[in-house]
């Protein structure tokens, strides 16, 4: 899994220092989960170069635990009850399960291939893992942690998002310039939706009506109507957009090469301010109350805190080397 140099690759290879920028552009997963508590108390941030997951206290803005996770941890998602944290280990070819309260690894599920994106069904709790090297997702039973099925999708699947009712999921198929829409009951792909160039991160709104894909190749975000199963808009953002978060009626987009977060109105698609964050921002998620947005900065080794209403940076947390927060990481 080391040494992948393709644009927007998943950082399986780990280049030191400034060379990381030349090594690869990352991918993201945004997963629609069950409703969070009123406030997120912790963030579980995958630190790929450190082979660790940092637990960040969001009140104190301090790392309070560092959990060893071998295999270059990248993707992250939480169970609907927030008791378990699922982490992909691309170089370990496995899914790692963390007890969130105990802050320790309790299971490692061998998968093979290139496990990268991970998402959770908010109704059934089923865990979906994207195989970067094959046109498939694995579905993992949340109780037995056995592979329940393999779901065919497009080429180089990365980001995964599940609708709030758990009935459908989206996979961003990077090399097909499209999203796969999958019926979670039948495990069949029911639509292929063309979007921009090299989609990676995909996020679904809380109503389950619209999806937003960050297209790293065309430097824009596609807006998809899930009822009509088609792209209905496209918004230019910064260079190498990676992930999208939604808060306060706005979309927040990490621009890897710009070191910024682009914003735009989620309804009208009118552009808003662009905010400077850390170097090479990747994972992004809004807090459950929509007041705060958190951004992981791969090169700066930081987690940036943004006031979503005022559109200002309000804090920074130092993390372990190579933070990805590659998915939905708030607990």
UniProtKB/TrEMBL annotation:
Signal sequence region: 1-40
Protein name (Swiss-Prot/TrEMBL): YncE family protein
Entry-linked InterPro entries: Haem_d1_sf, Host-pathogen_enzymatic-act, Lactonase_7-beta_prop, WD40/YVTN_repeat-like_dom_sf, YNCE-like_beta-prop, YVTN_b-propeller_repeat
Record organism: Methylobacterium nonmethylotrophicum
Lineage: Bacteria, Pseudomonadati, Pseudomonadota, Alphaproteobacteria, Hyphomicrobiales
Keyword check for Calcium: no
Keywords: Signal
Domain YNCE-like beta-propeller: 44-118, 241-319
Xref: SUPFAM superfamilies: C-terminal (heme d1) domain of cytochrome cd1-nitrite reductase (SSF51004)
């Amino acid at each position: 899994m080391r040494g992948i140099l393709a644009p927007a690759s998943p950082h399986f290879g780990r280049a030191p220092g400034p060379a990381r920028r030349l090594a690869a552009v990352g991918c993201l997963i945004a997963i629609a989960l069950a409703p969070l508590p009123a406030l997120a108390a912790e963030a579980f941030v995958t630190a790929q170069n450190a082979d660790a997951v940092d637990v960040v206290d969001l009140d104190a803005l301090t790392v309070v635990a560092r959990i060893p996770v071998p295999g270059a941890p990248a993707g992250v998602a939480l169970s609907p009850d927030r008791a378990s944290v699922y982490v992909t280990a691309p170089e370990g070819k496995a899914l790692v399960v963390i007890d969130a309260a105990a802050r320790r690894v309790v299971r490692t599920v061998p998968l093979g291939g290139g496990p990268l994106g991970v998402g959770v069904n908010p109704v059934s709790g089923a865990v979906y893992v994207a195989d970067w090297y094959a046109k498939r997702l694995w579905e993992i039973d949340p109780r037995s942690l056995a592979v329940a099925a393999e779901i065919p999708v497009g080429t180089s699947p990365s980001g995964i998002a599940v609708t709030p009712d758990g009935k459908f999921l989206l996979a961003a198929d990077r090399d097909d310039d499209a999203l796969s829409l999958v019926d979670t009951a039948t495990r069949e792909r029911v639509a292929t939706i063309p979007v921009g160039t090299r989609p990676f991160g995909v996020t679904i709104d809380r109503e389950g009506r619209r999806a937003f894909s960050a297209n790293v190749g065309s430097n824009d975000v596609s807006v998809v109507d899930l009822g009509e199963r088609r792209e209905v808009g496209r918004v230019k953002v910064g260079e190498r957009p990676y992930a999208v978060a939604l808060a306060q009626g706005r979309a927040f987009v990490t621009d890897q090469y710009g070191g910024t977060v682009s914003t735009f109105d989620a309804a009208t698609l009118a552009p808003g301010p662009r905010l400077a964050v850390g170097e090479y921002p990747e994972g992004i998620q809004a807090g459950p109350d929509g007041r705060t947005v958190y951004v992981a900065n791969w090169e700066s080794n930081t987690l940036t805190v943004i006031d979503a209403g005022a559109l200002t940076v309000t804090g920074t947390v130092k993390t372990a080397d190579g933070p990805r927060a590659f998915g939905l990481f708030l607990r």
